[in-house]
Design a protein that fits this description.
Layout (H helix, E strand, L loop, with lengths): L1 H9 L22 H8 L3 H13 L16 H19 L3 H24 L5 H23 L3
Helix pairs in contact: 2-6, 3-4, 3-6, 4-5, 5-6
């Protein structure tokens, strides 16, 4: 016990992490992205995208016009679970893996659905899912590829 108290008084022990520090990456953004970097290390955008995909799973195909593109039910539920899992990883403080998961799965969704989602006739929810995936890919992708050591 005396070792712990002596290390605190002398300052030789490890300093506690604040909520904005990440032990895996020490680089911070400068310029425009400096205002967005806290969001890229938080679970908020990923959790919002997960919620959007979960809400889209409640929309049945019977209420849609036949010519409107809407992703399959299983894919909407699957992407919701993946983005929810990535939000959990980010909430535990692992911003490197969390941002990588969100980036990879956002780009996967865009690869599978972007072209058909933006062709007319549009459904607002499909455009929202595509826009959300694009924003998350840009936000978390910048954090993952540019600011991770």
């Amino acid at each position: 016990m005396s070792d712990r108290s002596s290390s605190k008084s002398t300052g030789s022990g490890p300093k506690p992490l604040t909520s904005t520090e990440d032990p895996l990456n020490n680089s911070t953004a400068k310029g425009v992205f400096a205002h967005l970097q806290p969001y890229a290390r938080s679970k908020g955008p990923a959790l919002t995208l997960s919620t959007l995909f979960a809400l889209s799973a409640a929309v049945p195909h019977t209420v849609l016009r036949p010519s409107v593109y809407f992703p399959q039910y299983v894919q909407r539920v699957g992407f919701s679970l993946v983005f929810g899992g990535a939000a959990y990883v980010l909430a535990t403080g692992d911003s490197r893996n969390g941002s990588g998961i969100v980036t990879a799965w956002s780009l996967t969704y865009l690869f599978l659905h972007l072209r058909r989602s933006i062709k007319p006739p549009h459904h607002p929810l499909t455009l929202a899912m595509t826009g959300g995936a694009t924003v998350c890919a840009g936000l978390y992708g910048t954090e993952y590829f540019m600011y991770q050591t």
